[in-house]
Amino acid sequence: MEILKVLNWRYATKAMNGKKVEKDKLNAILQSINLAPTSLGLQPFNVLLIEKQELKEKILPIANGQKQVVDCSYLLIFAAWSEFTDERKQEFYTNFEKVRGSVPDVLKNYIETIYDNAQKNPEEFFNWAARQTYLAFGVGIVAAADMGVDSTPMEGFNPQELDKLLNLNEKKLKSVLLLPLGHRDVAKDYLVNLPKLRKPLEQLVIPL
Length: 208
Hints:
Elements: H1 2-9, H2 23-34, E1 45-50, H3 53-59, H4 68-71, E2 74-81, H5 86-100, H6 105-120, H7 122-146, E3 150-151, H8 159-165, E4 173-182, H9 201-204
Antiparallel strand pairs: 1-2, 2-4, 3-4
């Protein structure tokens, strides 16, 4: 299957060459992220799109000097909701009614339960929202590879410092993941020609 070729082609790119990613490919990646599954379709996160080199330079030390941050074409920052606000709840209902009509009672009950729990335990809500963010993040990685675009999944950064730099607290967001998008620098990337390191399938899958 083509998807297996794509997944074998991709890897966590360690050096990028600064070449621009075409706008149509970027848009396809962003649309794929938007189509990713999340619980109840709530999508409790936002994706920040960074293109300005000056801002990427400020993020570099926050990302422990990982050069992909400045050598990439675009830097995506996945930020989960730190709060489930009245406004966000109403936006979900408004969008649902626009797309599908009236909100079913069973779905409204689920949403109201999540909302109530978020008010009682914001940390638990954020942890749940972050897990939903990972679902979209994974789809973005695969979509990029399908477009022939390299990426580097990153957790190795200081989220508190990044949130401060980008004023994310004011937006009631907390950064969770970084995804530089660009093209591999074959001459400088030590990982590019190494075989993919994965356990045998029979060790991963446990039949029951």
